[in-house]
Amino acid sequence: MRATDNLAGGRLTIDRDAIAANWSLLKGLLKPGTTCAATIKADAYGTGATSTAQRLWEAGCTTFFVALPEEGALVRSALPDATVYVLGGLFPGTASDLAGANLIPVLNSVAEVREWAGFCKAESRAFPAALQLNTGMNRLGMDPEEFADVMAQKELTGSFDIALLMTHLACGSDPEHPLNRQQLNTFVAATQPFSTLPRSMANSAGVFLGPDYHFDLARPGISLYGGKALDTAPNIMSPVAMVEARVMQIRNVPKGQTIGYGGAETVTRDSKIALVAAGYADGLHRRAGSSDDRPGGFGVIDGHKVPLIGRVSMDMIALDVTDVPGEAVTRGSFVEMLGPNVAASDLAAYAETIDYEYLTGLGRRYHRRYAALPAPQER
Ligand SMILES: *Cc1c(COP(=O)(O)O)cnc(C)c1O
């Protein structure tokens, strides 16, 4: 531990080798010939975009997806030879910035296609772009009719290099959802006339939905970071991030008194409470707090599961450590709030959110280090 780590409330450990191992596992699930790319938007889901991209590159990943042009520029500075797609599309007037940084926009509308085509014509150079189809999610992308129309206009699509045709699943986390098959059929029908062009549909969930969904390239995100892609199956990915926060004080609270703001939770026995230096400003969602009406999230200390008690404050939480032996929890001890013993998806469920939001919102106050995570503690 660095000396200054003593000054931080908590530490965030990122296991880059685990991210690489998750990528290899996903790649092994894909049908032969399918490229496994990596989605590293939002600072690689909180793990650090450039360091994660570099580690994945070492593992053999050469294609990356980011959300914003700015994120793409950052990845480009770390990996000069990687293929980098920008999912957010072409922001007005930014074609030369993207092409200059060797970034590939995902063109999501006819207006974007026109702008990219105009730029390529003016430069007399067929820069690459992906085309996204809306197959039912109704987020970004061209409707199949618009796509067909654009493809028929050679003066538009003839002026640039179509590197990828893609679409995105709305309900992939639920394998039984009828929209999955419907989107697949729409995508196949729309792209069939151009099936020599590389196609991509699968996010993490799509990888698990099976080979029909794999096409030429998959672009998993959450599974790389140990998250849960399918709602209905156990998670086979390894955790890659661990949050540990420091115990600042241990307090005995007599039965019948309340803890924290709003007096939201009354202790029902004489209790030993640990005040821990991480709160909602560190990404521990306020909704994960506990009250007399509703249980909250938990942490793990020395293999003991310790529940939150009362509301989550900005800078701290209270944990019920009554059942933890005295020597296992003292002033200065660290409590795991995310990691091998506390799945992001479990914690997220208490806050009525998803592990994606937990990971991307971990906050800026943790001291960050890159190291292997310990094995889970059984107790
Ligand atoms: C975020 C995103 C992905 C990755 O999704 P995961 O569910 O994290 O695997 C892939 N494609 C698009 C278009 C996305 O927005």
From TrEMBL:
Residues reported to bind substrate: R139, M314
UniProt keyword list: Isomerase, Pyridoxal phosphate
EC number(s) stated in the UniProt entry for this protein: 5.1.1.1
CC cofactor: pyridoxal 5'-phosphate
Superkingdom per UniProt: Bacteria
Gene Ontology molecular-function annotations: alanine racemase activity
Residues recorded with modification N6-(pyridoxal phosphate)lysine: K41
Active site: K41, Y261
Organism: Roseibium polysiphoniae
Protein name in UniProt: Alanine racemase
Role played: Catalyzes the interconversion of L-alanine and D-alanine. May also act on other amino acids.
Pathway note: Amino-acid biosynthesis; D-alanine biosynthesis; D-alanine from L-alanine: step 1/1
InterPro entries: Ala_racemase (IPR000821), Ala_racemase/Decarboxylase_C (IPR009006), Ala_racemase_C (IPR011079), Ala_racemase_N (IPR001608), PLP-binding_barrel (IPR029066)
Protein family per UniProt: Belongs to the alanine racemase family.
Record-linked Pfam families: Ala_racemase_C (PF00842), Ala_racemase_N (PF01168)
Catalytic activity reported: L-alanine = D-alanine
